[in-house]
Amino acid sequence: MTTTATTSRHDAGPDETAGQPAGPEQTRDDRARTILIISAGVSEPSSTDMLADRFARAAGVTADRAGVRVTVRRIGLRPLAQEIMQALVGGLRSERLESAVTALAHADGVVIATPIYKAGMSGLLKSFLDVLDQDLLVAKPAALLATAGTARHALAVDIELRGVLAFFRTLTVPTSVLATGGDWFDPGLGERVERAAAELIALVADDVERAMTRSTWSSYDHTFDSAAERRRDDGPDFDTDLMRLAAGGE
């Protein structure tokens, strides 16, 4: 799924590798920002995917109003489940899983969407996070979405998921979104989605990740030969068979 808002308000300037020093002349650029949704929904159809779609639409509308060019993409973890487990056990990532990790490294912002089970994020999402380099998400803006069967899980997003992302030094937006069965027609859910989308777009538009890591990257602990260190200016190729399959296409 791709959503694009195509009005620009930024001064032109060169792109750079994440975490690498930029020249003093660079402030903003007019490139399209990329937001990657990581969805851990396991059913078809999935309420987690539905919430992610709702967020994508809100982000597109918000970006368009702000005059920011944004492309929203999504990778589902369900087709990668076996490869994630193999990476955990054997330590080797498949080409398809490596492509997903690279896409995450290149994204200007990320949306983490997960079902909540037993007051915690899905095991599929936690396993995916476990195979990531610890510096992959440093200062990366992130929004947190979750679905659950009951409001008893309300604190799971802010206590568990936000806590795990704090280990990665991720810049999570203030508003998290939890949708339970009775929330879908409640205006309050739409308001929370729109607020979280606006917060993420604000951080992504100002290129906060690069601004924060430009002068601090060398002070963090890094994984040897991590995807964050190997990030290229041209970004990952989403138009491949592997990436289309990971995104749920044919």
TrEMBL record:
Top-level lineage group: Bacteria
Oxidoreductase listed as a keyword: yes
GO MF terms, alphabetically ordered: oxidoreductase activity
UniProt cross-references to InterPro entries, sorted A to Z: Flavoprotein-like_sf (IPR029039), FMN_Rdtase-like_dom (IPR005025), NAD(P)H-dep_FMN_reductase (IPR051814)
Location of the NADPH-dependent FMN reductase-like domain: 34-182
Gene3D superfamilies on file: 3.40.50.360
The protein, known as: NADH-dependent FMN reductase
